[in-house]
Amino acid sequence: MVGVRERLRRPFESFHGALGCCSAKRMPEQPQPRPVGRITTTMTVQTEVSTWSRAIVKRSNDVAKAYDMDQGSIGVGAFGTVVAATDRASGARRAIKSVPKRDAKGAEALDRELGYMKMMDHPCIVKIFDVYEDRKSLHFAMELCEGGTLFSRIVEAGYFSPSVAAPVMKQVMQAVYHLHSSDIVHRDLKPENFLFLHHAPVEGNVLKLIDFGLAVSCSPGKVLKRQVGTLAYMSPQVLERHYDRQCDIWSCG
């Protein structure tokens, strides 16, 4: 058990140590990086404005008619499953996340998550292309990220050197900055919720933020009181049920 605990502790320290630890008495200052557009695999930043997110609508037809699903899931969580699939019309590879609606409250939460995802248009945030709805579930057709989670890469490597960690954390903070610029707080930032786009090495790879199930609108000055997230990455203010969007900054470092 000692070996297992050590293995899990090291990636936690690597993720938090990349930006330095924060005082429990004071939240860190909100970062103010410049707005950015597309990030290439060489980390070159270019300006881009797209309208893909504005065109997303719910489709009531069968998702299986539009996508050829692979056998077996590539991800299973508390809120649903994810399978790889191919768009029958374009041949594009996608990830299909299927989430049961269960009840009216659950359906409302899914609609809220979808709304936040539709608002996001950033190279470090996973894109959503189509949404299909049937009687029992919602199906999100999203970017297929094949490089695994940031957590698994840290465990595999043991730790990231500063030269590797710096561009990774740059992408993390760019995603968070974009969220906060849209008055949205994620509330569950952790290495497991960042995926690499490619199987390629970490250096030069593209990182994507996923899972907006706990995201909520939070304008400047608004105080949140619901205690949500993953305990190991919660700020003291979340534990005290009195926090704002800077709780995401704590989770990053």
Automatic annotation (TrEMBL):
Molecular function per GO: ATP binding; metal ion binding; protein serine/threonine kinase activity
Reactions catalysed, as given in the entry: L-threonyl-[protein] + ATP = O-phospho-L-threonyl-[protein] + ADP + H(+); L-seryl-[protein] + ATP = O-phospho-L-seryl-[protein] + ADP + H(+)
InterPro entries xref list: CDPK_Ser/Thr_kinases (IPR050205), Kinase-like_dom_sf (IPR011009), Prot_kinase_dom (IPR000719), Protein_kinase_ATP_BS (IPR017441), Ser/Thr_kinase_AS (IPR008271)
Keywords: ATP-binding, Calcium, Kinase, Metal-binding, Nucleotide-binding, Repeat, Serine/threonine-protein kinase, Transferase
Keyword Calcium: yes
Matching PANTHER family: SERINE/THREONINE-PROTEIN KINASE
Family stated for the protein in its record: Belongs to the protein kinase superfamily. Ser/Thr protein kinase family. CDPK subfamily.
Protein name (record): non-specific serine/threonine protein kinase
Protein species of origin: Zooxanthella nutricula
Phylogenetic classification of the source organism: Eukaryota, Sar, Alveolata, Dinophyceae, Peridiniales
